[in-house]
Write a structure and sequence with these properties.
Strand content: under 5%
Largest sheet: none
Radius of gyration: 19 Å
Structural class: mainly alpha
Order of helices and strands: HHHHHHH
Distance between the termini: 49 Å
Helix content: over 70%
């Protein structure tokens, strides 16, 4: 049986990670999407609280479910219309552009991929070609969908 890391140590790691994400997301929201610093703070605090609650649930609930499952369920519970706090949660988190929060996440994914280049190169040229085609295909398809949504063709 594996021994769990102490909760206090994990909270410190989570806090540092969330602080970096908050900083990067607010910076992206302000520079790329015209968000305002003071309007972004309450929404980011709400998202951080939801994330911390989900991570805490993952730590204490004995299950093989990933933490993102708990975070998603908690987020949905606080945002559904039946929730007494849904209106302010939706209002304040609506001040943060979705793409502003995705940008730092994709940057972290790129850093993680960059750390494993040797393993990536061991796949062989066919695997690398397929990986690059998937990445480019995903990028261009996302751009196409965004373009269609911006033109009002997709709801």
């Amino acid at each position: 049986m594996s021994r769990k890391e102490p909760f206090r140590s994990l909270c410190r790691e989570w806090g540092i990670s969330l602080a970096v994400m908050v900083f990067l997301t607010i910076a992206c929201n302000m520079t790329g999407y015209g968000g305002h610093f003071l309007e972004s703070i309450p929404g980011m605090l709400i998202l951080c609280i939801i994330s911390l609650l989900g991570l805490t649930a993952k730590y204490f609930i004995p299950s093989s479910l990933p933490a993102v499952t708990y975070i998603g369920v908690i987020g949905m519970l606080v945002a559904i219309p039946a929730s007494p706090i849904s209106a302010p949660v939706i209002y304040w988190t609506g001040k943060i552009d979705l793409m502003a929060s995705i940008t730092p996440i994709l940057a972290f994914a790129g850093v993680l991929l960059g750390k494993d280049w040797k393993a990536f190169l061991n796949i062989g040229w066919k695997g690398i070609l397929v990986s690059l085609l998937v990445i480019f295909g995903t990028f261009f398809t996302s751009g196409l969908i965004a373009q269609l949504m911006g033109a009002g063709m997709v709801l």
